[in-house]
Amino acid sequence: MQTTRLTLMCHARTVAQKLACFPTNEPVENIQLTSEALAARFAQPRRLLCGPELRTRQTAAWFGADAEIDDALRDCDWGDWHGKSIKDLQREDSAALLAWLADPQVAPPGGESVTQLAARVAAWLTNLQPTPGHVVAVTHPYVVRAALMHIVQGTAFNAIDVEPLAAIELRFNGIWRLLLPGIDPEETF
């Protein structure tokens, strides 16, 4: 059986993340990274995927010009909460925010629930299983969380934080396994 190697990359930091706001289609912050070093991190051959949002496309471009947009990697649909800060929601609609935080089946008004997101990501992972080789997917913190929860079959969704440019590796060889790669001291970025 051939192995599927999946590296999930969280997009780079955005202003919305710094301000604790639900995202819009904002760009990543202007940060200085050498795209050559990042592209070399995931040597060819590999398949590069990304969500359709600007922030995922910009981050994926650092890893190569050949990124394919995959709609299954899109961010959670925040509905009416797009662009709103957590503080504003706590003031204006704390009951809805608390219900959403407590129950994965509750969606933001006009948006997608964690349960719906998890089903979308689980279907994507299932479709990816027969794809041998290395897939690098640039996506969003909530998509990474949903993938992890599917893999570990747990219920600790809100206990996982995914930092900008965080990477986890998953491999499928009969079952999905989480790989936490170490840092190679010989490698330079």
Structure write-up:
By secondary structure, the chain is α/β, with parallel strands linked by helices. It has seven helices and six strands, in the order βααβαβαααβαββ. A six-stranded mixed beta sheet has the order 3-2-4-1-5-6. β5 (167-172) and β6 form a beta hairpin. The longest helix is centred in the middle third of the chain and has 15 residues, at 114-128. The radius of gyration is 17 Å and the shape is globular. It starts with a strand and ends in a 10-residue tail after the last strand. 29% of the residues are buried. The model has no long low-confidence stretch (mean pLDDT 87).
User: In terms of quaternary structure, what is this?
Assistant: single chain
Round the Cα radius of gyration to an integer and report it: 17 Å
Shape: globular
What's the rounded overall pLDDT mean?
87
Q: How many strand elements? A: 6
Strand content: 15-25%
Task: Characterize the main sheet.
Answer: 6 strands, mixed
CA-to-CA gap between the ends? 34 Å
Strand order of the largest sheet: 3-2-4-1-5-6
Secondary-structure element sequence?
A: EHHEHEHHHEHEE
Total of DSSP H or I helical runs spanning 4+ residues: 7
Structural class: alpha/beta
Helix percentage: 25-40%
What are the low-pLDDT stretches, counting only 5+ consecutive residues below 50?
none
